[in-house]
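Q: For a teaching handout, I want to show students what a protein-ligand complex looks like in token form. Below are the inputs, and the small molecule is zinc ion. Please produce the holo structure.
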Amino acid sequence: MTGATVGDVVVPKPNPDCETTHEENKARREELDKFEPTKRCENPEARKIQVAGQTIDGIDGCGVTISNARFTSASGGSSIPVSAQSNYTCLTAELKKGVVEGNPAIDRANGSLLDCDGNGRHPYKGPPEPSQAGGHCETRTLDELVKNGQTLSGGTLSINIDWRQDGKKLKHPCEGCHDMLCYAVKECELNVELCTNREDEDPPESVNMANFCPYDYDNRKSLSGRKKRNALLEALGGFGG
Ligand SMILES: [Zn+2]
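A: Here is the structure, written as tokens, with zinc ion included.
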């Protein structure tokens, strides 16, 4: 299930789930865009929104990552949709509907809910504060599955990541989530498929995360770490516009 490789390049393969989740991501972006006067970060002050009488940072298309995923357990049956978003706490009640929280912020200092290698809960990784990575789409998605009692082992998660930077639409997890997804693959025995940026191609495709694992955030500067990271970016690289 690791997919074909040609040299060091991972070749994507057709994945019908990605077609559905591309549509869901697109619909969510359109919904968010209605609330995003600052999606090009032109006016940071306009991000402020009122929640329960308090002024907090609001939705900003530059900072919001969204994802839609499908999880199928080892026992089969119908797949479970999992929709996640960063900046969850900034969402209005209406926008929170159908979006998973994952591990609540208050518990994130204790690490993720994934505990598969006998070394306790796997910690979140990344700057500026590791526990903040518990609010990323990928970690929320994995934590939500565990929180709901799903058995990751033998299951398959197809996840379609959508974030924006410098006007580019990007499909790859951050380095901290790269670590967490590899932990899920290697230690929890979850099969993870990442939808590629080829959303206008038919059929939609994905690459298997195992091609980019193991990945230890703390050793990401090592030769093997950089190779895995570069291969992932190559496979899921930016998509202009
Ligand atoms: Zn992340």
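A: Two things your students might notice: The chain has one domain: 5-35+62-240. Residues 133, 136, 138, 173-174, 176-177 surround zinc ion (CB under 6 Å).
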